[in-house]
Amino acid sequence: MINRRKFITASALLLALDKKSIASSLPNEVNKPIVISTWDFGVAANADAWKILIKNGRALDAVEQGVWVPEADESNQSVGYGGLPDRDGKVTLDACIMDENGNIGAVLALEHIKHPISVARKVMEKTPHVMLAGDGALQFALEQGFKKENLLTPSSEKAWKAWLKTAKYEPMMNVENKLYDKAAPQKLPGNQYNHDTIGMIAMDVKGNLSGACTTSGMAYKLHGRIGDSPIIGAGLYIDNEIGGATSTGVGEEVVRNVGSFLVVELMRQGYSPEDACKEAVMRIIRKKPEIAKNIQVGFLAMNKNGEYGAYAIQRGFSYAVCDRMKQDLVIKGKSYY
Ligand code: ASP
Fold first, then answer.
1. How much is the pTM?
2. Nearest atom in ligand 1 to 229's CA
């Protein structure tokens, strides 16, 4: 990434150290700007968010632009354009956004709009409401000048038609995800899974936090089904005094536990980001151990110091980090199983 060069002088020494020793040698240093996001495909998304952060841009702009990358990526079958459809063959998108002032906007089951995150931002900024759903969300998007498009790509349609033969609704567990391919960053893995959301949290140079979360949801869901991703507190939560959290995986369990809000509240109590994510995962496991065994849920969090961490039920949850020290880092999140 080109911008890294700008930091070589300032961070040459830091690059030689590992993150732990940096943190301990600079205890009061806030790690900013920084952007983190879920899954390997977060690397490419972070790169675009970073372009804004590095120019002293606002975290809100960074997360919106960052998640545009998987939203527009036809090969990503779990977010935006090219997303796998519901059982009726309709691509319905869920997204939400939250800024440093606690403002929120969300769209639920939005069809035909490639960038639901930007419609969510318009809901936040141009309406007195916080959520718009279905046809009403589409009508609003069109009024705001968004283009109506067919989001069902031939390969997603093919996958859906193959699914129709058995029509068995079964979220596939993404155990041991393939790692990000540095040699071909645009060819991202993920297609073999029938869910995976991008949740992104950024802190800008001013130390302000924002987050975005966008998905096509669980493939082959019932038409009208909403997951955690567009629900503030479940799929995403930001508290500018404390930090932010986001989630991915089987949304029903995240909603039941108001997962991302819980993670932020645990960080408020002094938990590290990773420990907060772990406790939120443990709530899910403790309440429904039999169900939890067979599903994936992962949380990703960042605190006000720019420290981050994640935890998932199953192995295979990865997340991407971009800060002054490392710009294309993929970390395998820890997990219960
Ligand atoms: N959380 C998303 C949903 O339930 C799917 C995912 O992240 O895998 O719709």
1. 0.88
2. 1
CATH of span 30-151+194-335 = 3.60.20.30
In whole angstroms, give the CA distance from residue 44 to residue 28. Answer: 30
Angle between helix 116-126 and 59-72 (nearest 10): 150
Cα 127 to averaged position of ligand 1 atoms, centre (Å): 26
- Annotated catalytic residues are 197
Taking only the tens place, the pLDDT of each residue in 142-171 is: 999 999 999 999 999 999 999 999 888 877
Q: Which residues line ligand 1 (CB under 6 A)?
A: 195-197, 215, 217-218, 227-229, 248-251
Task: Collect contacts of 118-127 with beta carbons under 8 A, ≥24 apart.
Answer: 118/64, 118/68, 118/146, 119/95, 119/144, 119/146, 120/95, 120/96, 120/212, 120/214, 120/230, 121/60, 121/64, 121/97, 124/97, 124/99
